[in-house]
Design brief:
Helix content is about 25%, strand content about 30%. The chain has three domains: about 100 residues, Pseudouridine synthase (2-Layer Sandwich), CATH 3.30.2350.10; about 130 residues, Pseudouridine synthase (2-Layer Sandwich); about 55 residues, Roll (Archaeosine Trna-guanine Transglycosylase, Chain: A, domain 4). Strand 14 and strand 15 form a beta hairpin. It is elongated.
Length: about 300
Amino acid sequence: MNGVLVIDKPRGLTSHDVVNRVRRILGQRSVGHLGTLDPSATGVLHIVLGNLTRLAQFYAHSEKTYEGVIRFGFATDTYDADGEPTTPLQDVHLSLDALRALAAGFQGTIEQIPPPFSAKKIAGVPAYKLARKKKEVVLKPVTVEIKEFEILSTTADQATFRARVASGTYMRSIAHEIGQKLGCGAHLSSLRRTTAAEFVIEDAHSLRELEDAMQQGTVESDFAANFEADFEAKMLVHPRKLVPQLPSVTATEENAALIRSGRAVNLPEMSRARQVKVFYGQRELIAIATRIAGTLFHPGVVFSG
């Protein structure tokens, strides 16, 4: 089965845990994801199936949107609620206006130090492996872009927020740095990813829903007879919605056969595009093709052989 499935990742599972669960549920080995989500976070995890795992290169720098809660009063070693406190507990009383003014300073292109418990590598070793062994973790600042960062509300020691960020941004680091600037310590209490690239939480399914869909397909004969088509329609993102920055073209049967074998074809209707998504029929994405010259396109990434 080829496709993209949006999972609402539960708290406590790593992205790789979810991939393994999907493999077991679907009975399919070729499963991957298009961007990790911290174990303590929930929300949009875009899972790719079959030949569409080759789409990963088009999502390496995709934008994300988050909603979450920052807890003030103490910092932690992981910069989130799963870590051990690293500063004494303090009483805090937050001002919404003051926090909003502080948050404004984090918008735009900034330098950010990743959390010590992260996948960033030091001399080839993931930082979290060193941190777990209580070894010193010194990470260099990285450039990230925070396109929107809004404090929505506050209580005595917590603030809810919404953020839209470029790839590679750690919301845990933002929470930690705000606590440092206020002098009271802070950490990320909860985080939910609501969008990643074109994938939205409204299209997400729980792992339980995925299991139920598979069980229904095995016990209901009428459903099972058309299982794959029905499953695609109910559970998978429509292929035409993928990589929306590229225009789509529907190949003739002759062109589709050439593209599947990796051969260049003429696509005169795409005379102005540099890259295109090539479909056979409405749902079968067979390739991403790149212009060679004129209307001649070469299928650089082939999904259907």
